[in-house]
Amino acid sequence: MGPTMGNGFFTDTTLCIGCKACEVACKQWNQLPADGYEFSGNSYDNTMALGGTTWRHVAFVEQQAPPDEPPSESRWLMMSDVCKHCTNAGCLEACPTGAIVRNEFDDVYIQPDVCNGCGYCVPSCPFGVVDLIAHKDYDAGRGFVSDGRTSDDATQKHGGIAGKCTLCYDRQKVGFTPACAKACPTESIVFGDVDKLKAQARKRVETLTARGVPAYLYGVDSGTSVGDLNAFFLLIDRPEKYNLPERPVLPSTHQPAGYASGALAAAALAYVGFLIFRR
Amino acid sequence: MTAAELAALNPDAAARGVSDGPELPPHQSATYYESPLLKRPHWEWNVIVYLFLGGIMGGSSSLVLLADERERGGRVLARNGRYLGVTLALVCPAILVSHLGRPERFLNMLRIVKLKSPMSVGVWGLVGYGNLAALSALGQLANDGIVPEWIGRFVPKPLLDPVLAIFGSFIAGYTGVLISATAIPVWAKGKRHIPALSVCSGVASACALHAALLAIEGDFPETARKVERLELVASLAELAGLEHFRRYAGEIGKPMFDGPRGRKLRTFTQFGGILGATLLNLLPGHSRVRSVLASALTLAGGYVFRETLIEAGKDSADDPRAASRQPE
Question: Which of A 177-216 lie inside 8 A of B, CB atoms?
Fold first, then answer.
């Protein structure tokens, strides 16, 4: 026990069969409420997005072959999305209470008893992962009172706190594999030491490339300000097809320009003020 | 399916110009079912009101520092500023507490100082400002003979006024940094504009409020004119900044500047609050009613600016294209 390096997920989308066992296992282990019976009409995806109480989401991208090509050229891309547990996490940096921490497994974890529901982490996540949820204690004993997908402010009125994937912190503590990876029947989701996962993933990219599949890793050596992702992906199409940002930017990188802009305006107005009042 | 086949199958839909799918084959569709990539911010009216009042609070303490207390108008201006400062320093945290999902945990923000988080820095700025503003108001109360005069001797006024002006300017500006240090495209795009606009709007609103107070309380045309002149400069800077931001942001700025929301911003902020109030103030002579009216226009414009900013952020979050290649 006691890993020295970080733990994370390698999600190989070429192995995903869209069974959603990861979604179910996550909901069950973490005792998260159901998402309701909404029919999106978008392939088999009725979950549609990660949310405060939806910590795994399987995306379905149907790609029909162009009319002049054989039907065998059609593709069905599936990807199990999850919190990326960024090296430089926007939510963690924004959090004013220190509720969001990096735990001993190098994962980004929200301490529910410290979070005060300010909601600043929500727009600070470049991947649109974290959201507010009703607090467990709010309606004594009833558990979560609203589903995590609401985008109105209902959750703030219901003792809302921020919610997202914990990378099964509780399971990791006792040496278990996170629920989603454990349930995945094809090993599309692999859990483990991030460095070892990266080595495994690079080998997989080589294998696929040799077969002519345009595979690449998303969130490894990408050179973005969010850094490497502890939960990274193997993709075979552009990131935005899977609803991942092509160029995620760490929000705190905007701060120097922001403070300079504010200070400059304040100094200029102060100077003008002195000219006006001291005349 | 060709258009003719569709028309044969469903004449109704064809007549309405509805096709059974996008023009492009699905493998060329750029985003994931056009569904949002980012989460909408949850901030509602309380945050908008806080941004608005925080701006006034900040601008007001600068006016206290600027006021020349050797003359009567200056004394009234400084007094108003000190009382307004402490009042808003009480109201603002109360509004912030009301927006928290768990209001009783406002204190959780005081367990750490986190320079990386503008919200943490802002809360400490607010705490610092509040305590100093209370001290400053105490000195004013002693000066006005409401509390015993000897209490005023413990208030270091020459030091307090500049420190409060600095704290106040910070509070007027940090909210802009807080907003632009997010992944929301229109906010992130405005990292060089929004903080400066917040300061300008805050100062303009503070000047407007003080001009109205001076007009209501009595006849101080000299001081009122100076306040209005600073308001004019701040307002014109805001006008220029907004226009520059609109051009600079382009497509990403559309949630803020296009449609009904853009029209509201133009009507209340750019036209009413800035141009309208400026013209009223520039008219020759001095009228109490006109002064109050101009101030009301500026204050309404200031509020609409903050509201537009927050609401535009929500729509901007829904645009998967802007969210895919995020502003650097």
Answer: none
The verdict on residue B14 lying in a domain is no
Shortest Cα–Cα distance, B148 to chain A (Å) = 31
Helical residues (DSSP H) of chain A, grouped into ranges? 21-29, 90-94, 121-124, 154-157, 169-173, 179-183, 194-210, 255-277
Q: With CB atoms and an 8 Å threshold, state whether A261 touches B118.
A: no
Ranges of residues in chain A whose predicted pLDDT is under 70: 1-5, 135-159, 279
Q: Residue ranges of the domains in chain A?
A: 7-248, 250-279
Give the distance from residue A201's alpha carbon to the nearest chain B alpha carbon, in angstroms.
Answer: 24
Maximal C-alpha separation, chain B? 93
Closest CA to B300 of B328, B322, B271: B271
Query: What's the predicted TM-score (pTM) here?
Result: 0.90
Q: Tell me, yes or no, whether B24 lies in a domain.
A: no
Q: What one-character DSSP code corresponds to residue A212? A: T
- Provide the CATH number for the domain around residue B151: 1.20.1630.10
In this prediction, the answer to ipTM > 0.95 reads no
Residue located via tokens 């999106």: A40
Six-digit token string for B88: 């808003």
- Nearest-Cα distance to chain A for B324, in Å, is 4
Q: Tell me how far apart the alpha carbons of residues A30 and B140 are, in angstroms, rounded to a whole number.
A: 57
Most B CBs within 10 A among A116, A226, A271, hence the mutation to make, goes to A116
Q: What does the buried/exposed string (b/e) look like for B67-101 if buried means 16 or more CB atoms within 10 Å of the residue's CB? A: bebeeebbbbbbbbbbbbbbebbeebbebbbbbbb
**Residues of the domain holding B171:** 39-318
Distance CA A51, CA A155 (A): 12
A48-76 tens-digit pLDDT: 999 998 999 999 999 888 888 888 888 89
Q: Is residue B115 part of a domain?
A: yes
* Contact between chains at B323 and A254 (C-beta distance less than 8 A): no
Name the strand (E) or helix (H) holding A161.
Answer: strand A161-163
Beta bridge partners of A189: A11
DSSP reduced 3-state for A274: helix
Enter the DSSP assignment of B23: S
Amino acid (one-letter) located at B187: W
Query: Among residues 239-278 of chain A, which lie with CB inside 8 Å of chain B?
Result: 239-249, 251-255, 257-266, 268-270, 272-274, 276-278
pLDDT tens digits, A246-255: 999 999 999 9
Position B172 in a domain:
yes
Could you please report the per-residue DSSP string of A100-148?
EEE-TTS-EEE-TTT------HHHH-TTS--EEE--TTTSTTS---S-T
The DSSP annotation for B223-254 comes to HHHHHHHHHHHHHHHHHHHHHHHHHHHGGGGH
Which of B27, B191, B199 minimises the CB distance to A64?
B27
What letters, b where the CB count within 10 A reaches 16 and e where it falls short, cover B143-156? Answer: beeeeeeeebeebe
Angle between helices B45-66 and B194-217 (to 10 degrees): 70
* Architecture of the structural domain at A7-248: 2-Layer Sandwich (3.30)
